[in-house]
Amino acid sequence: MKKLLVAGLAAVLAASCLMVGCSKNKDAAASSGAKAPAAGKVLNIYVWNEEFQGRVRQFYPGYNASNDTIGDVKVNWVITPNANNAYQNKLDEVLLQQENAAADDKVDIFLVEADYALKYTDTPYTLDVKKDVGLTDADLSRQYKYTKDIMTTPAGILKGVSWQACPAGVIYRRSIAKDVLGTDDPDQVQNYLSDWAKFDGVAKQAKDKGYIMVSGYDDDFRVFSDNVKSPWVIGNKINIDPSIREWISQTKTYTDNGYNNKASLWSPEQWAGAKKDGKVMCYFGPAWFIDFSLAPQTKDNPDGENALGNGSYGDWAFCKGPQGYSWGGTWICGAAGTDNIDLVKDIMLKMTCDDAVMTKMAEDVGEFANNEVAMTKIANGSYANAFLGGQNHIKYFLDSAKSIDKSNISPYDQGMTEKLQAAMKDYYDGKVTEDQAWENFYKSILETYPNLTR
């Protein structure tokens, strides 16, 4: 049984083996989670980095950050990095052991990302946010619809909630924009970058001035992948949406013309272009990318002040760019079998539904909070992001956040994205032809998901 479950989880519900293998335990597992007493001495939270830990320590009322406790409950942060799928492998392992684990060892909360959220939603390992945890429709009413849609099962059961929404756009270097376009004003820069034809034209202008339009191959991939009209898999057949092919064509052109720096996402080369002496004009991302990923990389002194003059910090601004899109997001799931159900509920409630907490989170750390009331208030207020040169960029996110449509997501999104980017890198680098790159992509995908066909 456990071998079957591991295979099912690892294959991202391939051929529905997970659901077939564990359906007979579903009611019992969910019931045990829903009825668990709120008497646990340890709250185990499984994450892949320190982002949520930082948010909880800073914004959850009553959290004692000096010793990681909430009242008399010890909070145990189990951090396993995402690299090589280590986090999901660890999570799968402990969830399979949940029923027989000692009380203080049981998983209470775990986080999932958008790319693989569907892997865990329609399973017995996640609690029903309303029926089991106890949040109400009124509690959840101010959250953006798409953040709930992603975590809702086909039967209409909500299995997770998020403190963040992730509408995204273009983060551009002010000084480079002034040199290339004659302005760094977000509204005017947006006019120059409002569609892909204009964006391509500016890329040529930037190159002529000695700059690089984007850092590498994958910078704008999420714009194209988030605007697909069909999912990666239809039935059991791999499907390549025209928007994905547009990304490949554009990236090859940019590589050949010197409009990118031939960097891969998250590589040192990607961040080098954002340093004080860097030449990259544009990065693409949502609020979490701006503050959690890009901003720290721009500082010459990592421990120095977040202020203009420390590297290129403060020499940036934000606009929508050629297409609206979203990227990422993190969801809080209550684990079936938790012995801290009341605390799980309160964390979900305070961190994702409380107007005051959400507003403070957005104001203090630049988070685009999953709360329409809070974000509308901030967009119309005096908020200023120091990294973005004092810009209140929240107003650019509002319409996009309401219009995000995740109807084309699938359980295969993470694997497809990673395999495609890896295969096409060899094509961009000139190591293989495009046809060979596609063959390599299909081969790697079918090895990962043997239930699929071309």
Structural notes for this entry:
There is one protein chain. This protein is α/β, with parallel strands linked by helices. 44% of the residues lie in helices and 14% in strands. The protein starts with a helix and ends in a 6-residue tail after the last helix. Residues 1-8 and 10-38 have low confidence and may be disordered.
What low-confidence regions span 5 or more consecutive residues with pLDDT below 50?
Answer: 1-8, 10-38
Got a strand count?
14
Q: Indicate the overall shape.
A: globular
Q: Helix count, per DSSP? A: 22
Mean pLDDT: 90
Helix content range: 40-55%
Largest sheet properties: 6 strands, mixed
Proportion of residues in β-strands = 5-15%
End-to-end Cα distance: 30 Å
How are strands sequenced across the largest beta sheet?
2-3-4-1-5-14
What would you report as the Rg, rounded to the nearest angstrom? 22 Å
Backbone structural class: alpha/beta
Task: Explain the layout of strands and helices.
Blueprint: H1 2-10, H2 17-22, H3 26-34, E1 42-47, H4 51-59, E2 63-64, E3 69-70, E4 73-79, H5 86-96, E5 107-113, H6 118-121, H7 129-133, H8 137-140, H9 145-149, E6 167-173, H10 174-181, H11 186-192, H12 196-208, E7 212-216, H13 221-225, E8 233-234, E9 237-238, H14 242-257, E10 260-263, H15 268-272, E11 280-286, H16 287-297, E12 316-319, E13 325-326, E14 330-334, H17 341-353, H18 355-365, H19 372-379, H20 394-403, H21 413-428, H22 434-448
Parallel strand pairs: 1-4, 1-5, 7-10, 7-11
Antiparallel strand pairs: 2-3, 3-4, 5-14, 6-11, 6-12, 6-13, 8-9
Helix pairs in contact: 1-5, 18-19, 19-20, 21-22
